[in-house]
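I am sending you the entry underneath: sequence plus fold tokens. Let me know what the token row says about the fold:
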Amino acid sequence: MARSRGGRHATGPHEEGRPPRPRKRFGQNFLHDTRVIERLVGAIAPEPGQRLVEIGPGLGALTSALLSRVGALDVIELDRDLLPHLEEACAGLGELRVHQADALKFDVCALVEAPETTEGGTGLDTPIEAGDRLRVVGNLPYNISTPLLFHLFEQLGCIRDMHFMLQKEVVERLAAAPGGGAYGRLSVMVQYHCRVEKLFEIGPGAFRPPPKVDSAVVRLTPHAVPPVAVADPAALARVVTDAFGQRRKTLRNALKGCLGAEAIAAAGIDPGERAERLTLAQFAALADALAARTASPPDDSSDEASDTL
């Protein structure tokens, strides 16, 4: 459901004119520190005419700062009770396009106006020019940050970059290198899709209510070309998921459902190694081994032998 600036929603159980209290079920912690907002806007460096999308605008503290710089802004907010206060905070600053929706199900690429095809279609398969791609920002609820990132990875063809406030621990996992305890499935898959830059940390006091953990701002920039070649990205996702699903086990045991020890060794990797020590390139080699194994036709020799009996 999209709406332009100026409409009103029922304010719900809170008093008229007063902001609603943050809701735990939505994982809400509203950003209010003006110094943090200024620093974040400076890191994003929005320019007039750029297509920005904010996920989880809350009461509009960051929204108003962005809207005043770009003139038009799309926001995705699930909590309908916040919308009147969001619109009030942004009144007179530009065109605010509000989409009352679940970000986990929202198609951000639908916001990009693709050229019409000769048959009169939408042209969604047409490559989007770099200057027309979306810049996605947001203070992401901790409880949905990982699934939301994977949801956005499926839409990187229309995204220029992403700036998110996340739990500090999550940002450390995004940027982690092999060999450390923070390195895992999220690290590998994010680094396959994007360049990761941790920008700065934010203390709990910048939010209302203050969370029990520190936060950090991260910039994710989709790779124009993936850092490693992978024959089948789905095979990479399978290998990484299985390998880290039982991270204390060796690859020989963790991957036995998809790759045998011989196949792992043939890919140039020690089957006795653990997932947390593998580089992205090594995971790519395992993924290609799995893709080749899946694409190989079944061995029909036993069937032929039975036919001769």
